[in-house]
Amino acid sequence: MRGPVNRRQLLKRLARGAVQNVAFADMVRLVEGLGFRQERVSGSHHIFVHPEVPDRQLLRLVERYNLDIGD
Predict the structure, then answer these.
(1) 3 state SS for the chain
(2) Closest among 5, 16, 11 to 68, alpha carbons compared
């Protein structure tokens, strides 16, 4: 079993378009590292919100708002 993926590296990988084979747990760590919190789960949909961001699409949000991993 492998350990968690580095969030910065995962973000760079996703920004390049390499979106295949991303573990859900790694994506959750990335999203939470960017300041989002899980608001609710609706079926298989996990809804995350950010206190300063009204939009919804993650990669566009990261680029538009220049979000950074807060290590």
Answers:
(1) CCCCCCHHHHHHHHHCCCCCCCCHHHHHHHHHHCCCEEEEEECCEEEEEECCECCCCHHHHHHHHCCCCCC
(2) 11
CATH 3.30.530 is the classification of domain 7-65: no
Domain ranges for the chain: 7-65
Per-residue pLDDT of the chain (71 residues; tens, 9 = 90+): 677 789 999 999 988 989 889 999 999 999 999 999 999 999 998 989 999 888 777 778 888 888 888 76
pTM of the model: 0.74
Instruction: Check if the beta carbon of residue 22 is closer than 8 Å to that of residue 10.
Output: yes
